[in-house]
Amino acid sequence: MRFDILDEVSARLPGFPIVLHGASSVIPEMVEKINKYGGAMPGAIGIPEDMLRQAAKSAVCKINIDSDLRLAMTATIREHFALNPADFDPRQYLKPARSAIKDMVKRKIVNVLGCSNKA
Predict the structure, then answer these.
(1) Of all helices (H) and strands (E), which one includes residue 20?
(2) How far is CA 61 from CA 22, 45, 115, in A?
């Protein structure tokens, strides 16, 4: 991430909102779980969370992390099907998948984006 450019934009356009697109961390544990249960994501990487924390302290007002949410959901669903091959009711695998997304959102809000209790 080019913090020098973020700083320059902030200096030239004070208060201008900046959005980071494609800023998921691609958390290794999620990729490992996906691959363990039949996925194929070799070498998947993202933006380190410490860099996202730093960006959140700058002029960046929105950080898009959709891939991390999709990874959490996919990893959980793949694991569920591997461990429970007879399940076919979406409620059986979507409930833990939704919980995984909630956990990921909480992790990002509290530990990465620094926006806990700011709504």
Answers:
(1) strand 18-20
(2) 14, 23, 10
